[in-house]
Amino acid sequence: MNSLYGTFRLVSEEALFYLGKLMFLYITIPLTLLWVLIGYIFGLGDDVVASISGPAYFFIALFGVNGYRSMYPVAIGMGSTRVQLLKVYYGVGILTVVISITFLNVLQYILKTLYLRWEIGANILHPGLFLIDGYHFLAYLWIDLMFGLFLFGVPFLLYSIYFRLGLRKSIIILMLLSVIFMVLYYGSYLSDSMEWFLELYLDASGMTLVTLLGLFSVGALLLSYPIMRNAPLKPKSRKD
Fold this sequence. Notes:
Blueprint: H1 2-42, E1 49-50, H2 54-77, H3 82-117, E2 123-124, H4 137-186, H5 191-203, H6 206-228
Parallel strand pairs: 1-2
């Protein structure tokens, strides 16, 4: 029980450092205030796109890789098992991403509301701009949540593969998969699958596509579990 509590506290403090202090306190909140002041003073036009989401996307992906790497030897040294660390990391990580993305969209909503009240034509940079027409808070929040989970799950899966196989083997496997895909694609063996995906893309709404993106990120986390549950204390060397 003590080791589980210690692991939970370790992961929580690491998540708070990356996504609380670094992302919001030091960058995103000051950046939001800066865009508010710039919009109020200069009255931005329609050609301007205000962006406060870039740091959030970067630090979510960074936490998905560097956060676990820095916690791993510490947690094991504290008596935690690999399975405990992975479960706590998944749970705290997903919860932190949800909270961070929600707070980010609240800041974007405040910025959007102020711009509308001041009759400022500047847009707010968001993935929803490319998927749906008009600003809708709940729709934008869902899109951001799926995108945030993708940035958390997929980088961690790639890091897990690198951790277990090393840089050289990871690159070799990546190139082999690329060659196999190119042969299947240009040999017309994937024509049915490509037609199915194209029909899905044309028929589905943007919300369906981003939901599939979120499900893909959950699948990436599930794949990383058997890779890291019996991982050694140190990753493979760069030469492996």
